[in-house]
Amino acid sequence: MARRSFVAGNWKMNKTPAEARALALELRQRLAGSAKCDVAVCPTYLCIAAVAEALRGSRIAVGAQNLYWMKSGAYTGEVSGPMLVAAGCQYTIIGHSERRQYFAETDETVNKRLLAALDAKLQIICCVGETKDERLGNVTEQVVKRQLEGALAGLKAEQLAALTLAYEPVWAIGTGLTATPQQAQEVHAFIRGLVRAKFGAAVAEALRIQYGGSVKADNAKDLLSRPDIDGALVGGASLVAGDFEAIVKAAK
Ligand code: PEP
């Protein structure tokens, strides 16, 4: 079974609600014709409602950048899965390296968020990836394996239908350095092999694995043509409508 490509934009901490709405409307118009792959954008919590409204009935889905694992209560500053769904989200990113690096996210908290997202019936983009020192120390596979096993602890095979993995080498995020298509393909194949060993061949073949890390209009086609690269998680270039459009159109 061929996997359908999936390109998602992570808008990070950018855009006011009015600016986010304007970008969403422009993307809606630019991407109206082509439906070869799935597309989502992930604005800040504050902009989710405005973007969901602007994209209602379009081919572009809306995602959050994180969620908290409790449903409601005295957790100042947090947002839960059911709240995201009510605001118009179909997806959430979990375990982005910026969350791990700046907000003390661990494999255990990634797992708690992932289980909460499943409970809320959200689809998930779960990020893994090594730092520059880890790559230079030849421990990329060890790191990715640990992150993956941590994130997916306690999941049943059928729950992986709601999951997309994103391989995002930390050294390539926002740096302009991109993993070569060969480097990315190698790690994607490794990840698929881990999923195959734990959850079986059918689950592994159906699982989408995005690449993320300085994906741009001019390198997307080469990356996305590799057999185990099923789309992209795009940061910086997703804030420019024409660039994101070009990346979506480069997807197989
Ligand atoms: C990201 O933050 O997920 C990302 C891949 O960022 P960038 O495309 O800017 O490297």
Q: What attributes characterize this protein structure?
A:
single chain; 252 residues; alpha/beta; eight-stranded parallel barrel; 11 helices; 8 strands; binds phosphoenolpyruvate
SSE series: EHEHEHEHHEHHEHHEHEH
Distance between the termini: 14 Å
Quickly give the structural class: alpha/beta
Proportion of residues in extended strands: 15-25%
User: Average pLDDT value?
Assistant: 97
Care to describe what's here?
- With 252 residues, this protein is of the alpha/beta class.
- 42% of the residues lie in helices and 15% in strands.
- The protein is built from eleven helices and eight strands.
- The chain has an eight-stranded parallel beta barrel, surrounded by six helices.
- Helix 3 (81-87) links the parallel strand 3 and strand 4.
- The radius of gyration is 17 Å and the shape is globular.
- The two termini are 14 Å apart.
- The model has no long low-confidence stretch (mean pLDDT 97).
- The chain binds phosphoenolpyruvate.
Outline the fold blueprint.
Blueprint: E1 6-10, H1 17-30, E2 38-42, H2 48-55, E3 60-64, H3 81-87, E4 91-94, H4 97-102, H5 107-119, E5 123-128, H6 132-136, H7 140-151, E6 163-167, H8 181-199, H9 201-206, E7 208-212, H10 220-224, E8 231-234, H11 241-250
Helix pairs in contact: 1-2, 1-11, 5-7, 7-8
The structure holds phosphoenolpyruvate.
Phosphoenolpyruvate binds at residues 10, 168, 173-174, 212-215, 233-237.
